[in-house]
Specification:
With 248 residues, this protein is of the alpha/beta class. The protein is built from eight helices and twelve strands. Helix content is 32%, strand content 27%. The structure holds adenosine-5'-diphosphate (ADP) and magnesium ion. This is Xylose ABC transporter ATP-binding protein.
Length: 248
């Protein structure tokens, strides 16, 4: 493990009813690094990240995860969130009936001597919205927002919990081109702030643009991890499908 590694996942094996979805996958992450995870549908990308963020708890998989040098033994996502690991899932989890502010502080309200401190929460919400470049009122009901904006509120929520590793699972799938550009700008800015990011996407142009390194998995197996500058989108596809592009 190099000194700057914030995370190493070593030989992760995860089975569902005895059937392996991950067959020994390695992944590492440096501080402020963006690593993309590429693979066909069903290759195990989401499962690997659910192992990392505690959806699949310690004991339900084989292999070892080290976070900031310590073995990670999370029982659930609350454990990993406290440590600074946040996953934005493919299915968004905000409460549409509540405001942006209420969603950001749900279960973590700021209070002074037992009384909710809305003024403080308002200020904090404003700061978080600014970090994700969202120009909306903290009072906006989430249900009124478009899917792209909701995605950004999810990221703001993760940042509010001091995420040091942000996992984005196919975040751009429902986004327009301009919303995707905003998202990529935010990921680049987070990299400057030394937040690390695992980015999952099928859109390889995006992957090439945003990543420092690219990790390819196929059928639960780790195929390769390369510097993004070293591989072309055709190389990535070949590794994803296990054949030369010319044979496709
Ligand atoms: P990807 O995100 O790369 O599309 P997944 O990690 O979602 O792939 O799935 C990898 C494999 O594990 C698939 O065969 C999928 O059906 C299986 N799988 C994922 N989650 C579960 C689960 N909770 N129970 C049973 N099988 C699962
Ligand atoms: Mg998935």
């Amino acid at each position: 493990m190099s000194e700057a590694s914030i995370l190493t996942m070593h030989q992760i094996v995860k089975k569902f009813s005895g059937v392996p979805a991950l067959k020994g996958v390695d992944l590492s992450l440096q501080r402020g690094e963006v690593v993309s995870l590429c693979g066909e549908n069903g290759s195990g990308k989401s499962t690997l990240m659910k192992v990392l963020c505690g959806v699949h708890p310690h004991g339900s998989y084989e292999g070892e995860i080290r976070y900031k040098g310590e073995v990670l033994k999370a029982s659930n996502i609350a454990d990993t969130e406290k440590l600074g690991i946040a996953m934005i899932h493919q299915e968004l989890t905000l409460v549409k009936e509540l405001s942006v502010l209420e969603n950001l502080f749900l279960g973590a309200e700021i209070s002074q001597r037992g009384i909710l401190d809305y003024a403080q929460m308002y200020v904090e919400t404003g700061k978080l919205l600014k970090r994700v470049k969202l120009d909306i009122s903290p009072d906006t009901r989430v249900g009124e927002l478009g899917v792209g904006q909701q995605q950004l509120v999810e990221i703001a929520k993760a940042l509010g919990k001091n995420a040091e590793i942000l996992i984005l699972d196919e975040p751009s799938a429902p986004l327009t081109e301009s919303e995707t550009e905003v998202l990529l700008d935010i990921v680049k800015q987070l990299r400057e702030e030394k937040v690390s990011c695992v980015y999952i996407s099928h859109k390889l142009n995006e992957v090439k643009e945003i990543s420092d390194r690219i990790c390819v998995i196929r059928d639960g197996e780790h195929i390769a991890t390369r510097d993004a500058s070293e591989i072309s989108t055709n190389d990535i596809i070949s590794m994803m499908v296990g054949r030369e592009m010319t044979q496709l």
